[in-house]
């Protein structure tokens, strides 16, 4: 991600803490049964950015005890929860690949993947209990948000709800809520002031949403060689992200053509199969005002994040957090 960490010494300290988290993560996932350990460590070993633990560590810099064992524990709990949801998500999405490697469901089947996710959740629950009942409650509430978001996405937008509101609510529930919890946990476990803990939670919420919206924009605007991902993946899966929802609200011949490509007569979303359809939809979307509106929405969340940062006291992680927010905007090009 190329974050500006401020100083080399600070960067080394965070690197050391991330290594401790990695160690604890793998220790927690060892079960004593080889078949279970193999399935349970599959996604952790496949890589990942460890974005949530990193954010928890950066948030912990606002308290007097950023190096406390509890900070490492909290950051690991959040990553365990995140990984657990990915096992289940790949089953629901019938995804073959995750993090450049074969998904657990594709390798061992749905039952093993679901049980591996459950095992991660069990380990996260055990670990969070060492932080006390308040932490257990926060994780339970966050877990309920994740499930609510996943279910809201599954049942789809209901009549009477604006599709953009529905979309942003799902993003908050299934993505931003856990990043907000990472910020809250980092602040809490390092002993930050209560108003700063609330700010760190809101900062996580804004950064999480900004990241998702920037991902959505990149899926439409990128050339396959610069993002490392194939553009149009969401359209192929029949997923209508924020720029698409904005563009479908428009009128005129381009918006009509986009609707004909993406929405059936009965209002169902059409997953695009033909490469030519994907190329045409991407061309229409890139020329549509919906893209600019999505960029504006992204800037709005980034501004919210900057405002939370400005209200927090200066800390060793201020530069890194500022560069993280800047990155969500700059990465769209
Ligand atoms: C990925 O979204 C999925 C999530 C961020 C959250 C999934 C939440 C659950 C499965 C809730 C239930 C969890 C448990 C452990 C019972 P995506 O499919 O849009 O993104 P992807 O491209 O990463 O697959
Ligand atoms: Mg998925
Ligand atoms: Mg999904």
From TrEMBL:
Keywords: Magnesium, Metal-binding, Transferase. This is Polyprenyl synthetase family protein. The keyword Oxidoreductase does not apply. PROSITE patterns: POLYPRENYL_SYNTHASE_2. Its cofactor is Mg(2+). GO terms for molecular function: metal ion binding; prenyltransferase activity. CDD domains: Trans_IPPS_HT. Pfam families: polyprenyl_synt.
